[in-house]
């Protein structure tokens, strides 16, 4: 492919060799448009190429080049470039700007409605939402391009002034937004039935940003004993520095929640459901009503459920958090997090995020987008395998106890089967043995990886007493983390293979 010269004083060249008088940012070498048609559109990971593609289709319906006699596709693209090059006229300039990736134009309500009418299921939303209709980047590539840029340019000072005064939309700077990430946020909002979503660098940072943006200094929060340990550490160690106090309750203790709401000016109740690692479930509709009656917000960390299995916003929650590293991305290859909910709340988190940072890299956004296209397939497979595995383990003589919300023996089974459409891919259980016997079991499995995290295609297994709580025997005792506890994240492998592997490993207990 010919090299594109980026010089300050250059002009567009068409295939016929005619030069246009209007100065622009790029010189197109001979036959470049045809080469662009066949090659460059396949990967728009460079911002310059993405802008070229956007300009090429700026005046074409549905983002595709106009067909024409004689010249075919290349002639249509060339004429589109010619039209873009005459952008000295105000109307043409506006059309060009609205087509390039840095033009942050609100998605028309008609497009949103069309998407809702077209994509009626989670399966279709996971594949197409945020991309099939109303995608910002104008290209006929099926996949959303990666836009690698740190900043976005303005045509002139007036356009910048218009941006500052709200008449022109732009991302302006990479910390404030990105077209690839925006497509991801739209997809997540569609799946969670949320007004807005902001994606950030990790699930942990999503929790930090949410708490920092929405809990005032001197405020009070309520959380649960069973949760991700690093979230608890942040709340215990960092929030008091802002004068924020905290009440910690057992997940199912509604009397304790009511008491905390009655006796404190509670800003927010933050809880996982299902929780980590015992998979306790909170009645979202019930606690939403309890919190709202006292003016408190409810934020649900729904990472263990995924939006396929649970939509907490439809049950009354104000916000939902995900570690997108887990089921959302689903391939154990990227870290990210998000906050979804009402726009008035998410916008406050977004503003805090713009100031502090914690930006999701656009390449990571692309990986998460790609992973989400199979989210419904992976989660359905993991639901089925995990339920069968939980049932198998519950009947095994070398297993003392199984924690899985899809089992009637689970204390919140009645809640889970009401508010979840599937019970997730994580099964926690206690081996009928001591610390060393449990270690021998872990060391004997052949298929699952011995690692932290969960929700990926590969099965993962760990002993929380070592993996998460090795530095604190006291906290293990407080939170019920026994030496023989196992957390097993089911991947997408065959059930019989996983079962047979666990059977042979249990022989060492």
Automatic annotation (TrEMBL):
SUPFAM superfamilies for this protein: PLP-dependent transferases (SSF53383)
UniProt GO MF annotations: catalytic activity
EC number: 2.5.1.160
Coiled coil regions, renumbered to chain: none
Cofactor(s) this protein cannot do without: pyridoxal 5'-phosphate
UniProt key word RNA-binding: no
Keyword tags: Pyridoxal phosphate
InterPro entries on file: CGS1/2, Cys/Met-Metab_PyrdxlP-dep_enz, Cys_met_metab_PP, PyrdxlP-dep_Trfase, PyrdxlP-dep_Trfase_major, PyrdxlP-dep_Trfase_small
GO-annotated biological processes: methionine biosynthetic process
Domain of life, per lineage: Eukaryota
Protein name: plant cystathionine gamma-synthase
Stated family: Belongs to the trans-sulfuration enzymes family.
Pathway linked to the protein: Amino-acid biosynthesis; L-methionine biosynthesis via de novo pathway; L-cystathionine from O-succinyl-L-homoserine: step 1/1
Catalytic activity of the protein: O-succinyl-L-homoserine + L-cysteine = L,L-cystathionine + succinate + H(+); O-phospho-L-homoserine + L-cysteine = L,L-cystathionine + phosphate
PROSITE patterns noted in UniProt: CYS_MET_METAB_PP
Pfam families named in the record: Cys_Met_Meta_PP
The keyword Ligase appears for this protein: no
């Amino acid at each position: 492919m010919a090299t594109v010269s980026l010089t300050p004083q250059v002009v567009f060249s068409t295939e016929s060799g005619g030069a246009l008088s209007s100065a622009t940012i790029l010189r197109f070498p001979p036959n470049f448009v045809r080469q662009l048609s066949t090659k460059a559109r396949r990967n728009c990971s460079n911002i310059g190429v993405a802008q070229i593609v956007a300009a090429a289709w700026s005046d074409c319906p549905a983002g595709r080049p106009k067909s024409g006699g004689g010249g075919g596709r290349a002639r249509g693209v060339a004429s589109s470039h010619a039209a873009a090059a005459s952008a000295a006229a105000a109307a043409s300039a506006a059309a060009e700007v609205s087509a390039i990736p840095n033009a942050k134009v609100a998605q028309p309500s008609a497009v949103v409605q069309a998407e809702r009418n077209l994509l009626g299921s989670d399966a279709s939303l996971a594949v197409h939402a945020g991309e099939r209709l109303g995608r910002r980047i104008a290209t006929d590539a099926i996949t959303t391009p990666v836009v690698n840029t740190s900043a976005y340019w303005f045509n002139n000072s007036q356009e910048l002034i218009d941006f500052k005064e709200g008449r022109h939309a732009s991302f302006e700077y990479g910390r404030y937004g990105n077209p690839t990430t925006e497509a991801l946020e739209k997809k997540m909002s569609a799946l969670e039935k949320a007004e807005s979503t902001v994606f950030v660098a990790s699930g942990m940072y999503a929790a930090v940003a949410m708490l920092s943006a929405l809990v005032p200094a001197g405020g009070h929060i309520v959380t649960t004993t069973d949760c991700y340990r690093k979230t608890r550490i942040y709340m215990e160690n960092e929030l008091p520095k802002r004068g924020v106090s905290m009440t910690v309750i057992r997940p199912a203790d509604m009397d304790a929640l009511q008491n905390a709401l009655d006796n404190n000016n509670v800003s927010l109740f933050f809880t996982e459901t299902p929780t980590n690692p015992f998979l306790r479930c909170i009645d979202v509709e019930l606690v939403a009503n309890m919190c709202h009656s006292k003016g408190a917000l409810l934020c649900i960390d729904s990472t263990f459920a995924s939006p396929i299995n649970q939509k907490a916003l439809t049950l009354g929650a104000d916000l939902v958090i995900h570690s997108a590293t887990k089921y959302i991305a689903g391939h154990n290859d990227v870290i990210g997090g998000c906050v979804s909910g009402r726009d008035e709340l998410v916008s406050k988190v977004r503003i805090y995020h713009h100031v502090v940072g914690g930006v999701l890299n656009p390449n990571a956004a692309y990986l998460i987008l790609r992973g989400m296209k199979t989210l419904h397939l992976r989660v359905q497979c993991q639901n089925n395998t995990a339920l069968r595995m939980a049932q198998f383990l519950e009947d095994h003589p070398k297993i003392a106890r199984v924690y899985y919300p899809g089992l009637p023996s689970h204390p919140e089974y009645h809640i889970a089967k009401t508010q979840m459409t599937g019970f997730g891919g994580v099964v926690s259980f206690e081996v009928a043995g001591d610390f060393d016997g449990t270690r021998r079991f872990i060391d004997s499995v052949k298929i699952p990886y011995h690692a932290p995290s969960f929700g990926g295609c590969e099965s993962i297994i760990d002993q929380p007493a070592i993996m998460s709580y090795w530095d604190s025997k006291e906290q293990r005792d407080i939170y019920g983390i026994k030496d023989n506890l196992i957390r097993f994240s089911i991947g997408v492998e065959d059930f019989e293979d996983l079962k047979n592997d666990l059977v042979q490993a249990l022989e060492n207990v």
